[in-house]
Amino acid sequence: MPMSARSQFRLQRSAACGVSAMGKPTVYADTLARAAVAIGGESRLAAALRVPVADLRQWLRGEVYPATEVYQKALDLLIGTGGH
């Protein structure tokens, strides 16, 4: 399912600013936001990471941190897509 223009803008803005949607700067939120943009959206990233979309959105907002394994997989995806 294609990502809406609004969702893409929000992810790109978060990635460019290095802050989560809640305004909490985290390296995790930044990496996940850039990976979501690179892979085509939150749903696709959640599927690639094998996590629920709701969990991914919490991480993107900076509410909680992802597990180290999930973060490392997001980094691998980002590097693999050339989005780093």
Give short descriptive properties of this protein:
84 residues
Explain how this protein is built.
This protein is mostly helical and 84 residues long. It has one domain (5-81). The chain has helices at residues 5-17, 27-39, 42-49, 53-61, 68-81. Helix 3 (42-49) packs across helix 4 (53-61). The protein starts with a helix and ends with a helix.
Structure in a nutshell:
The protein is mainly alpha-helical and 84 residues long. Helices cover 68% and strands 0% of the residues.
What does the largest sheet look like?
A: none
Supply the number of structural domains: 1
The rounded distance between the terminal residues' Cα atoms is 24 Å
What structural class do helix, strand and pairing data support? mainly alpha
Shape: globular
List unreliable stretches of 5+ residues.
16-21
Helices and strands in order, then pairings?
Elements: H1 5-17, H2 27-39, H3 42-49, H4 53-61, H5 68-81
